[in-house]
Amino acid sequence: MLTLYLGCLALGVIFAIVSVLVGDLIGNALGGIFDLLSFDFLNSTVLAGGVTVFGGVGILLTRYSRLDTVPIMALALLSAVFIGVLLYLGVVKTMDKSEVSNGFSMRDLPGKIGEITVPIPAKGYGEIMVKFGAANSLHTAASFEHHSIPVGMKVVVVEVREGVALVTEFEDRRGEDF
Questions:
Q1: Distance (Å, whole) CA 118 – CA 112
Q2: 3-class SS at 151?
Q3: Do residues 141 and 125 make contact, with C-beta atoms less than 8 angstroms apart?
């Protein structure tokens, strides 16, 4: 049984090292296989973690306890399942839902507050910088009210027409600039 536990531990460690080096390739290959089975918990991270814990607990209990083979295997299996569930709930499921992106739609612009980076003439175009999440994006802008707007002025996007953000000067309700 010690050989089985050593093999599982070695397999898990090798998988961890290889996945760090070429993780995207492995994740896509294994992810595609498990997508066919449509079992969300059969993630390569969960399986590799479970196999590694099974091997490690099996080795430790075999060497340092006086338990028989069946209780050792049962405890190693329970430990692997417990850690697998923790990995799934704590890492895989939470990371699957998270996404860091600076992508946006032009339909998201109305109502956003930005800053003029290139002055907008009364009849013409300038540029605004709008913050989306952790990123800033630059957009062609024109004055909604056909007034010139200087650099550094805070503006709010009123609407988007033909890819151009129509903006107006922004002041908060207390009369202070944003």
A1: 18
A2: coil
A3: yes
Cβ atoms of residues 76 and 126 within 8 Å: no
Among the listed ranges 21-30, 98-107, 112-121, 152-161, which one has the minimum average pLDDT value?
21-30
Contact 17, 71 (CB under 8 A): no
Buried/exposed 71-91: b ≥16 CB within 10 Å, e otherwise? ebbebbeebbeebbeebbeee
Structure tokens at 57: 């607990």
- What CA–CA distances, in Å, run from 31 to 11, 41, 46? 18, 11, 12
Query: From CA 129, how far away is CA 126, in angstroms rounded?
Result: 11
